[in-house]
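Co-fold these.
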Amino acid sequence: MFTFEELLEKINTEIQKRTQELRKKEPLRLYEPVDYTLEMGGKRLRPVLVLLSYNLFSEDVSKAIPAALGIEVFHNFTLLHDDIMDKADVRRNRPTVHKKFSENGAILSGDAMAFLAYEYLLEIESARITDVARLFSKTALEVCEGQQLDMDFETRLDVTEEEYLEMIRLKTAVLLACSLKTGALLADAPEEMAKKLYDFGINLGLAFQLQDDMLDTFGNQETFGKKIGGDILANKKTFLLIKAIEMANSEQSERLHYWINKEDFIPEQKVKEVIAIYNQIGVQQQIRKKIDSFYLHSLEILDELKVSEDLKNPLKSLSNKMLQRVF
Amino acid sequence: MFTFEELLEKINTEIQKRTQELRKKEPLRLYEPVDYTLEMGGKRLRPVLVLLSYNLFSEDVSKAIPAALGIEVFHNFTLLHDDIMDKADVRRNRPTVHKKFSENGAILSGDAMAFLAYEYLLEIESARITDVARLFSKTALEVCEGQQLDMDFETRLDVTEEEYLEMIRLKTAVLLACSLKTGALLADAPEEMAKKLYDFGINLGLAFQLQDDMLDTFGNQETFGKKIGGDILANKKTFLLIKAIEMANSEQSERLHYWINKEDFIPEQKVKEVIAIYNQIGVQQQIRKKIDSFYLHSLEILDELKVSEDLKNPLKSLSNKMLQRVF
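Predicted complex below.
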């Protein structure tokens, strides 16, 4: 049985090996942005989830590494194309690909990463390879659906809590769930267990994304790593804003809409004022309740999984870390 | 045994069925551009090649249809993203996706098509499904490499004939070859035959792309369907320009570079003058020789294929049509 840290080490070693190979491939201008993106780092959560899940049923985790890598390459592809669509200039303290190279370069190298993800994924030798590839394709399409919903919400003020949860399920949760199920399928786990791990991932993913929303507004800038209040400044339809609009009395609602519609403002002031309204309404308590509920449900599902309890510990400890953001 | 027309009919029926399904999928803004792209029409060459190749070995072509469709969806994905990169406003007499919808919409719906292509491809039930998916991923990555080389050539005047042929091999020929090999693999044909069909496709694809270059300059506007001289106006490094630069005497070279470097010109005059230089040098004969050589080589490969001669006729007749552009 491997710890989270040991599996992360395996993933990082493999990524290093692959990026070295990519640096030798032609045309250079296609593969340089791919290499740049993969070398940027990141938490490598998804590939580690593949291996942790695989490791519940089988010790030989090396067999699952190409699939884990494929999912990580796919995740990085989505970040690359999302950054073009969001016109984001910086990711992980470095210029985004379309800023550093060119927009055309970012589109095409992103496309190449999508196919590279499949190339890695399909390296695996497994009786369940078709199931894995089908699950991956379905998931990839769902992630696109989630990104589209997120863009659709930009121009709407009437997004419901239910619609929001469906958006983050597609945009964030299904890929975590897919990672976990992929590990189980590759280890040839029974269908029922693979499904449970998928559901565990959905609940964990929803809690994880909601916490990201919470920290964007109520977090500590240093441990969060991004500037606080970005969502408020962009009028992003997060759980907090949706809940605030839903729960506000008429005076709070008026103030909230004043700040949403104001085009000329001092950023710090808008963030401060909107947080004050959020605090009056008590949306932080609401989001905390929601996060806890999804997180507890994910643990219940894990409890039902019929493998020995000590095997589940690395997965539990990673979930715990994810929700406390200590790494 | 099916004729080209019968197989085309099957493909078109299937595309109609699938686009009807796509129109019901949410979010609408993600799937509308996909539907729009697939409904634009086109020659459906690649899916028909899958079925023609399959039909050399097996009668039950319906089994290969999802894979044929996947390849067609992938081909349309490349057109969609290429149009963004080329800033093209019109395709098949209709506004391109990024013009009709938005650039972000075109990026994301294109991405969705890439995954939809796999979803269709992976519907097939076949012992060779992994081989097919691996070939497809390798090919998709090569097509990205070809597109990158094509973009790299824009800023170069020293592109060699060999580099050019490698670029069109990647950008155009490998997908035709992949279509043919996919049909063979799905019909469980021997590896050697699948390989021959692949090589047949490479040679056919090279001839096809060279002819496209030739017609862009020397074609008849009505039968070609695009405005004549577009490549000349864009200083595109086609076989014609590369060969002209290579073969020009010093006076011809000077006139050619004059027109390449001139920033202010009357389009019709530039086209007329460059064609006059091409005619003096005799590049049309050069490209015709090259087309014939690839085409004849493709037929030689087909001759070597050990299936009965009459089975090869639909494939031969399609190649013939492709090279004469009568449809």
